[in-house]
Amino acid sequence: MNIDDIKQISLVDFLHHLGYEPTGRDSKGLWFYAPYRNERKPSFHVNPRKGLWYDFGTGEGGDIFTLAGELSGRSEFVEQARYIAETMNMPVAMPYKPQYFAEEPTFENVTVSRLDSPALLRYLAERGIPDDIARRYCVQVDYTLHGKRYYAIGFENNAFGFELRNAFFKGSYPPKSITHIAGNNPRCNVFEGFIDFLSAERLGLNEG
Asked: Mind listing the domains of the chain with CATH numbers?
């Protein structure tokens, strides 16, 4: 199983092998019924050019690996890759052994700045989050991990750590903690992740 080969697989071909065909198209891509839940109206959108999907019914999205995770219930990257390979009838012999870390990965050269990356803002826009809301609550975090340079959307928590997210990564810069945002709403809204919070903010659900 060659990971680079898997990355080249079309999401449309992957869905075809799963038995799903597009129900329509627009200027940005194709519409499908969500392959992991029942729905009456197609709300699952695929952008073939970017290799990304977005479920307007749940507010979730990502690439072929995140879709494999949703379908298989597997959170490990290697298991997601194996699921894709099996679906596409590809050989599944592993060319490498996954690395396991006894401790949390060490972030180095961490810098926090205004959220200005076009790629990150575009990712949030594809999730339905406008720039003004994104910049109000999020920052850009640039960091080095395992010798490579990365950047992600950062959402600060109460312990001054960050939840990190981009189109290909979901993680955190320790320490882990909750994020409490005080407001005038007498009701307490609890969200599993900060993308859910930003979506609620866009829809005005956090207002009193």
From this structure: 3-87 (3.90.580.10), 107-203 (no CATH)
- Measured N-to-C along each axis, helices 64-72 and 77-87 cross at an angle, to the nearest 10 degrees, of 90
DSSP reduced 3-state for 181:
coil
Report residue 141: phi and psi, to 5°.
-115, 115
**166, amino acid identity:** N
DSSP SS3 for 190: coil
Q: What is the pLDDT of residues 169-208, one digit of tens each?
A: 888 888 888 898 876 666 788 888 899 999 988 888 877 5
pLDDT-derived band of residue 93, with 50, 70 and 90 as boundaries? low
Per-position b or e across 25-54, b if 16+ CB within 10 A of its CB: eeeebbbbbbbeeeeeebbbbbebeebbbb
* Radius of gyration in angstroms for the set of CA atoms belonging to the chain, rounded to a whole number: 18
DSSP 49: T
Cα(203)–Cα(27) distance, integer angstroms? 25
The first and second tokens of residue 146, run together, are 């395992």
